[in-house]
Amino acid sequence: MAPDGSAKQNRTIAxxxxxxxxxxxxxxxxxxGIESFTIFEKAADLGGVWRENTYPGAACDIPSHLYSxxxxxxxxxxxxxxKQSEILDYARLVAQKHDLLRHFSFGKEVAGAQYDxxxxxxxxxxxxxxxxxxxxxxxxxxxxxxxAFPDIPGMQRFAGRAFHSARxxxxxxxxxxxxxxxxSGASAVQFVPELLKQAQRIVLFQRSPGWCIPKFDRKFSAFxxxxxxxxxxxxxxxxxxxxxxxxxxxSSMIARGLLSRLADGVMxxxxxxxxxxxxxxxxxxxxxxxxxxVGCKRTLLSNDWLPALASPKLTLVTEAIAEITSxxxxxxxxxxxxxxxxxxxxxxxAAQFLAPMELKGLNGQSLxxxxxxxxxAYLGVSVAGFPNFFMLYGPxxxxxxxSIIYMLEAQARxxxxxxxxxxxxxxxxxxxxxxxxxxxxxxxxxxxxGTTYESGCHSWYIGLDGRNxxxxxxxxxxxxxxxxxxxxxxxxxxxxPLEVRAARTA
Length: 506
What we know:
alpha/beta, FAD/NAD(P)-binding domain, five-stranded parallel sheet, 15 helices, 21 strands, globular
């Protein structure tokens, strides 16, 4: 590359992933007056998790007026909680309305990237062998895009149809079939009641139950939609109402004292009353009642889940699975369940951040190797030793209660300001100081011990080292405040060489 190559590359940004995170990042770059960026998306369409998950009943468990961008808050949602197809339509509208589509490069799956310290650029490699260079690399790949399969002997021997809920086979006819569902988490809660309408029988294998609370969902009436259309401020008021209600409920998971006990009491009461009303069998209620606090694993929102479990068409199995056979599932007590199909509702490899991409920073150090004992980052956004690299939805930025879109916007605004800092101060690079990152993560782990996330249950919040590497340990509002403006003192700032700066101003 020529000596002035850094100057040519200084305004280029590569964004990996075209889901809600990528859209948010693109919007805030454009709002900052930055147009030289490309969103590299592995698929042929945008949408991320809402493009991938098309299983029956797929929907959001955060009310739509909060699960929407602050810069596009007045969308005519049909229901209190958006369905998968509607959320995907919303994402497409955002991309079109805010002129983001022209920045997309579809069908470009990133295999890895390596930082060239001499030139001050990231070289991004794609699965097709091509390479691009960018001064700034932003990962917006999310946490819920790589299906996780259980490690059960014999899975390949099964002769029937088997697939993960995130790869739903819409061509398979469940009519008259006996179906095994492995997993009872947030996806299964949505698709099992729908599947029960089609299948002759379901055998559900549950490792551990989750707390289920009512989902106060319904369609907006024609009158309500007219009011919202004529008075958009109603959207904003409802958004604030939902935000602060969820902040209160989050107290049951992250706080101590009176507020925490009050919020926990509300959550437990909702769950226990729902259980009592919808499950009449006392023995079944015992199987469905968790032995851990609310929030230790993802709280389930559904009005249909518990009635489905109580249906005579469904058999709940709590005995551990020993193996998959050619015609079904066998548990450790020797019981065999013959089934025609298996649906894995086993979630995602959420703790394997950025996998399967291989990122290498200064001196060729591997991010995968650095995170071998658990992922960590400063504010979930920056990693020491990886200059000009930023993340959305990074370590410890998921929420036990709240809208991830709020978190994504806070991160996107912060990163856009970092890019402005790079450009305005003629910087070659910025990377968070190791001590700053270490102090932040020490704080996170100390605060973790006061949350329900580390109270002993098995959940995807916890990494292989037993630490919570996924969830934020405070309120959404606190996170937003902490990312309001980047502190340059948190970063090592390396200026461009004098000759490059001179060439830019010539």
